[in-house]
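Please produce the structure of this protein holding adenosine-5'-triphosphate.
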Amino acid sequence: MTTPHEAAGFGAGSTATTPTLQVSDLHKSYGGNEVLKGVEFAIDKGQVKAVLGPSGSGKSTMLRLMALLEPADRGSIMLDGTRIGAATQNGKIVHHSERRLAVQRRDIGMVFQKFNLFPHLTALQNVVVGLTDVQGMHKTQARDVAFQMLTKVGLADRDGHFPSELSGGQQQRVAIARALVLNPQVMLFDEPTSALDPELVGEVLEVMENLAAAGMTMIVVTHEVRFARRAADEVTLFDSGVIVEQADPTSFFENPQHERTKRFLSHVH
Amino acid sequence: MVFDPQIFLEQLFNPAYLMGAFLSVSVAVLSLIIATVIGFFLAIGRTSKKAYLRGPSHTYVWFFRALPALLVLLIMWNALPQVIPALQADWYTPFIAAAVGLGLVESAFMAEIIRSALSSVDEGQELAARALGMKPASVMRKVVLPQAIRTALPPTGNEFIGLIKYSSLASVISLKELLTTAQIGVNITFRYAEYYTVAIIYYLIIVTIITLIQSRVEKKFLWTSRGVKKVVAPITLSTEAIATSSKEISV
Ligand SMILES: Nc1ncnc2c1ncn2[C@@H]1O[C@H](COP(=O)(O)OP(=O)(O)OP(=O)(O)O)[C@@H](O)[C@H]1O
Ligand SMILES: [Mg+2]
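Below is the modeled complex.
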């Protein structure tokens, strides 16, 4: 959100903006396995951040915590300056109820590697269900809004198709529309093209690049270096539960500072 | 004694059989509804993280899986009204006792069908629904249940047919269902072949109708735009395929 202050140009160059999404000191363990070891991450409104990192380093876990789908062991998540997901009481983290989390999740869109479209609903119904169930919109209006969103991702002619009748690329575009239609403040993508046949990657990346150009705030975990170079404002290397390096795409790929980044890039090249 | 077609046809169109068939189906329907509702909560209880829900669910299933349906019916009709005077009232008919008794027994089996149907739903489904901001009840009702029902339909159809047959046990508590009707006729006339053949035909018709309805309902759960299964290449990707496609990326 742009405050009137920023809009009026107050602050003379100082960056007093509140990040759209900010996580601090995020920790998460499964059993004895510490997957997130104090993640610090922030993204401003309209920014696109690409997150790269080796398999098993905890990228998906970080996104699931940011999307409030799993509770953090420690640390905080702030959306537009307001703490979400939990509160701290007497030094202990107290998680919100599932019903309260459900409300907070509306502001965060999530796109999964395996699409996770609802197989019993048509493409249109997949997009409608969030509008009617979550936003309480009337069915006829929801159908119009959902149809416009399907048109935006290039699937106006597939509205009546079920997920099993769509290609992987089309399914992922429906999944993007399903998240986007709720007007989230930030969109999280977890390897959105990794489950796709190579020839279908382009159509999904194109939708995401359009979205980025339209000013959506996006965190994209990806192996697509091309996307990171073209669409990201900043590229992040995530490894072993922490953020190792963050830089603009050119510096990140041409002149990485950290040994681990260099090693990771040498594998990807 | 030879098979007398005259007697056979007379009985085939005897309203008593129709009434018996109607009672058998009604008992089966009502007990299946009872079993599904109880079974659903048992299934939720058995998979719950809370021990105070898991324990009772387990005990219930353990108890009713062990008891013969016949014994439960006898208890429902003979023993319970002695212990609970309220059940001596007029509304407590053999029909109610049979439907509830069979429902209680059957719920132990429906619990298992529902539990495995719920767990067959990909966990990504619940995750996606929660990510949209859907409340727990909506996640269950609009996303998980429709998919679980599809899995549960074929075994539930089998259970329903089983219940039609189990309803004949209710003869011991004097419910005039289909088989009892045949048996009463036999006791008077000793025309075993004719009366039992009529019963066979009624059971065959009932089960055929159930099977037809079941396949109709299952078609509704195919989730294709024509309601007919089309051959669509499934988007299955082995981890190997994912690994190769990510290796192909170059800077
Ligand atoms: N629900 C869970 N229960 C137990 N362990 C888990 C769970 N989720 C993740 N892990 C473990 O946490 C680690 C990080 O997993 P995560 O999926 O976040 O990695 P990732 O960086 O997304 O990897 P990939 O690139 O393969 O998707 C792994 O070792 C994984 O086995
Ligand atoms: Mg992952």
